TrEMBL record:
Pfam family, one: DUF1152
Name used for this protein in its record: DUF1152 domain-containing protein
Tree of life domain: Bacteria
InterPro entries: DUF1152
Length: 319
């Protein structure tokens, strides 16, 4: 049991020396973990970054692969590719004097993803992994009214759930509310968090204040990414960054949201933290995706599960 003044997430990581912070859902998800990773580095921890990638990794030369399905991305990787969040982050890290390597996993099924995680964990003798989701669909167990886009997120959860020789495996979710545009019912997200609390798997929540060093650096990193990927900026991190700045309501930060009404609000800047094995235990279909080799198998297995399950009806916030 911890004290109120001690954050349970950082308490869990207090004795960890080499920590992997990994983006779960592809795209710019690793940016969602940047404030946490920077805070851990500022505490003297050795922190490595990885991301499940939507980038075109197949064209990378052989020397850029540390292991099957584990690419090593630097600021100079694939200069011909315009969309490459991992490289863009590596460039920002170099600008700020941080180690400028970001590992990338291609989209695969659970088995190869687990092997890639294992290779990375062994490469750096990792003793803690924090899986980060920009959004909340990683918290859905399968019987909700809508699941958002859970395939990559839950492939990561399943991959890490079996690596029980890693002392600490955690999940953090940031960007509460952003998945509403993918059909996620956030009352059901809160219901799931309550259940995880009862199970002892919820580690509490804390904000990313812009007045902190990590908050200011995060805002700078998101702005840098938007400038270097103008044709496809991150809506999730743009929303989180807007919330960190104190913006509210229908905030415009990219033409990609034209025609949609956003609801940027302070809840988007909160980290919700969880024990990964406890979260995995509540997923109703994790066993169905366990033996997958391809990401399309993960998609089809979840779709097959959804055809058989009785879903919980969506609920509205009281007002």
């Amino acid at each position: 049991m911890t004290f109120l003044h001690a954050n349970p997430l950082f308490t869990r990581l207090a004795d960890a020396e080499r920590i992997l912070v990994a983006g779960a859902g592809g795209g710019f998800d690793i940016y969602s973990g940047l404030p946490l990773a920077l805070s851990l580095r500022h505490q003297g921890k050795e922190v490595h970054l990885a991301n499940l990638s939507f980038s075109a990794l197949a064209g990378l030369p052989a020397e850029d692969w540390a292991a099957p399905d584990l690419a090593v991305i630097t600021p100079d990787s694939a200069p011909h590719q315009s969309y490459f969040p991992e490289r863009t982050l590596a460039q920002w890290l170099r600008l700020h004097g941080h180690p400028a390597t970001v590992y990338a996993f291609p989209q695969t099924g659970v088995q190869p993803l687990r092997a890639a995680y294992r290779a990375l964990i062994e490469r750096h003798d990792i003793d803690a992994v924090v899986l980060v989701d920009g959004g909340t669909d990683i918290l859905l167990r399968g019987d909700e009214a809508g699941l958002g886009t859970p395939e990559e997120d839950l492939a990561g959860v399943a991959a890490l759930a079996a690596l029980d020789d890693v002392p600490h495996r955690l999940v953090v979710s940031v960007g509460f509310g952003v998945d509403a545009y993918h059909g996620v019912n956030h009352v059901q997200v809160l219901e799931n968090i309550a259940a995880l609390e009862r199970d002892g798997a919820y580690l509490g929540a804390f904000s990313i204040p812009r007045a902190t060093r990590e908050g200011a650096l995060y805002l700078d990193a998101v702005e840098h990414a938007q400038q270097h990927t103008p044709e496809h900026p991150s809506i999730v991190n743009g929303s989180i960054a807007a919330a960190v700045r104190g913006s509210f309501g229908d905030v415009r930060f990219t033409d990609r949201t034209r025609g949609s009404e956003l609801f940027v609000n302070p809840l988007m800047s909160l980290y919700f933290a969880f024990d990964l094995p406890g979260l995995a235990d509540r997923c109703l279909y994790l066993d169905r995706i366990e033996d997958t080799q391809l990401i399309r198998q993960v998609h089809s297995r979840i779709a097959e599960f959804r055809d058989t399950v009785v879903t919980r009806p969506p609920r509205r916030f009281p007002h």
